[in-house]
Design goal:
The protein has 302 residues and is α/β, with parallel strands linked by helices. The protein has three domains: 2-108 and 204-224, D-Maltodextrin-Binding Protein, domain 2, CATH 3.40.190.10; 115-190, D-Maltodextrin-Binding Protein, domain 2, CATH 3.40.190.10; 235-299, 2-Layer Sandwich (Double Stranded RNA Binding Domain). 31% of the residues lie in helices and 25% in strands. The strands form four sheets. A five-stranded mixed beta sheet has the order 4-3-5-12-6, sandwiched between helices. The protein has a five-stranded mixed beta sheet with strand order 9-8-10-7-11, sandwiched between helices. Residues 3-12 and 57-62 have low confidence and may be disordered.
């Protein structure tokens, strides 16, 4: 809750941050809290841990029961119903369309957006090697380079996934997850974007608050990282143009080239039978991201 202290500024005695309970989610919330305290000394940020449907249903693929929103909607609900003031997400878990009543108020400086292999490098995987991943985007792109590979499902938090790595020739993870948890030594190969286009907004954090909560909106503006926000906006526009929470194998990666934004996008049909990739550069992040999605849809026949 914000309390005014004099005419010049407002401070927060307590800011409640809704978050998932995994070690990575708690790291992300602690990181956002540290950024806020650095900008606003004396600020107290209290974590409000929320269990999501994605956390409860670890036995089936995410795509079978709701896609992206399964890791976000309960966290968002805690803000909407007043249990929390802000929500801290992995930006890749957010559907491309913001929920009514909420505002994506801050994108702090982005971490590593790339995917990575644990257990083996791509070149060292044996013929017919088994790779564990729950992502169709990752499967399609790896299969395009190594058609011999076999794939199995992988779910769970990072500790669970690392524990399962020995059961397969390799698992695929977001590099930033292990980097943030101090487990980067497990990364056998970080895959460059030329090899695998990442998930939309991978490596970025997203902080939401109630749209009408002006003081909190202003508070969160202090941790916004403009270049990261432009990149994330471009990638989210790509996903929105594909149809919101698109369940097709799709990825996008935005980079800044001077004042311009370049977006590399990849898209495959549901069966992964072909893979299309295009890139485009322009001044408007949203326009470029949306245009790349349209180009890919046309390449796949609409």
């Amino acid at each position: 809750m914000l309390a005014r202290r004099g005419p010049a500024a407002s401070v927060t005695a307590r800011l409640r941050a809704a978050t998932r309970g995994s070690a990575l989610a708690r790291w992300q919330t602690d990181h956002v809290a540290a950024l806020l305290r650095a900008a606003h000394p004396g600020l107290v940020v209290e974590a409000v841990v929320v269990e999501t449907e994605g956390d409860r249903r670890l036995d089936v693929p995410i795509s079978s029961f709701g896609g992206k929103g399964v890791f976000a909607k309960e966290v968002q609900a805690a803000v909407l119903d007043g249990r929390a003031d802000i929500a801290v997400h992995s930006a890749k878990d957010l559907p491309s369309l913001t929920v009514d009543g909420l505002l994506l108020a801050a994108v702090p400086e982005r971490g590593d957006p790339r995917d990575a292999l644990v257990g083996s490098s791509l070149a060292e995987l044996p013929e017919g090697g088994v790779v564990a991943t729950g992502s169709n985007r990752r499967r399609v792109q790896l299969a395009a380079r190594r058609p011999d590979l076999r794939f199995v499902e992988l779910r769970g938090n990072m500790q669970t996934r690392l524990a399962k790595a020995a059961d397969h020739h390799a698992i695929v993870v977001a590099a930033v997850a292990l980097q943030r948890l101090g487990l980067a030594e497990h990364l056998r190969e970080v895959l460059e974007v030329e090899v695998m286009v990442p998930q939309v907004a991978q490596g970025a954090l997203a902080v939401e608050c109630r749209a009408e909560d002006g003081p909190t909106v202003a508070l969160l503006a202090s941790i916004e990282h403009g270049p990261s926000r432009r990149r994330v906006d471009a990638e989210r526009a790509f996903l929105a143009e594909l149809g919101g929470d698109c369940d097709l194998p799709a990825g996008a990666h935005a980079t800044l080239v001077g004042e311009q934004v370049r977006v590399d996008g990849v898209l495959a049909p549901g069966d992964g039978s072909r893979l299309e990739r295009v890139d485009l550069i322009g001044p408007d992040p949203v326009a470029v991201g949306a245009a790349v999605a349209r180009m890919l849809l046309r390449a796949l026949g609409g």
